[in-house]
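User: Sequence in, structure out. Go.
Assistant: Echoing your sequence, followed by the structure tokens.
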Amino acid sequence: MENWRYIEEHKVSASYGLGVDEFLMDQHTSSSENPIYLRLYTYKNYSALSGRFQDLSAEIDIEQCNQEGFGYSRRLTGGGAIIMGEKQLGICLAAPSSAFSWNHVRELYELFSTPIIQTLNELGINASFRSKNDLEVGSKKIAGLGVYLSPEGNIQFHASLLLDMDIPEMMKVLKIPIQKYSDKKKILSVSQRLTTISKELVREVSIAEVSDLIKKNFSKHFNIELVEGALTSEEKSKVKEIELNRYLNDDWIFQNSPQADMTGMSLKKTSAGLLRTYIGLKGNTIKSVLITGDFFEQSEILNQIETNLKWSPLELDNVEEVVRQVFDKTDGSNIGMEQEDIVSNIWRAGQRAMIGEKYTYNGSCYYPEGEKEEEKQEVG
């Protein structure tokens, strides 16, 4: 029976929590014989974490985080911004990609989430995997999932399992402004999209209870034995380097932030997640484009579109042609969104820039304030 190393930590900081996960993933090289790692951990109340491809400042209220004493950073995995604390269980599996049989990254989500679903089932909660990388109970999210594949061929799987959630606390720092609604209605709206283990079971559930079941189900599902091994002082020293170089580094945290002269912004909900596009113009010429969002797949295609549009005319035919050429030269199906979604979002942002409609950070994947009514339905 194969041994995996098991690590358990609690009340960690935003930078440390993410730094350890990256450190564990990096231990797998072609010459190493390091075990697969399973880590269960909690953050101290609270840490706000944006997805890999998001504009962090559009999703997280940095000023409010500082006032509340909340940590914040950017994950390696994609998806949306989340709040993690002492009642949200972080799950990380770090392994070489060659350790498992798979053809598409979607299979990894289902493979690694199976023991979590089994745990919820044992607790009496009927959960299932949703195609957009969530575990749901009915139509409500109870856990978010993410997978990152490193250039070296290693896997980092993330899950954030909600044992409980203080929604008013979450809404202090996640930008979910519904300015025409009362605070009570805002909370009710978000509550309709989330659930927790404690809410489903109508009792308080401890981290220890859930962790024990997850450990058991990972062991059973993968036919392995978990051997506990806390991080050594030397390992923590290396984690600190990763923290300083990435998760405490503004260049990493605030990447995907729009330039000061970008004057048009548009939101669109796609099958791959929320798409947020910023554009800056010089006359009728596209000076800069930035495409961000809570999608999960790698963004090389979007980066190429951004590059190819620079210093080209803001004309619908031109935008369509650039997007088509990039999709033709690459495997556009991997990104999970249609060419038409990207084109229409760029064009709408450009039209707003033309009339000097300065973008704001109002809005979110729940309620994009400032959109037309039919567009609200698109992204709600």
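User: And one key feature?
Assistant: The two ends are 47 Å apart (CA to CA).
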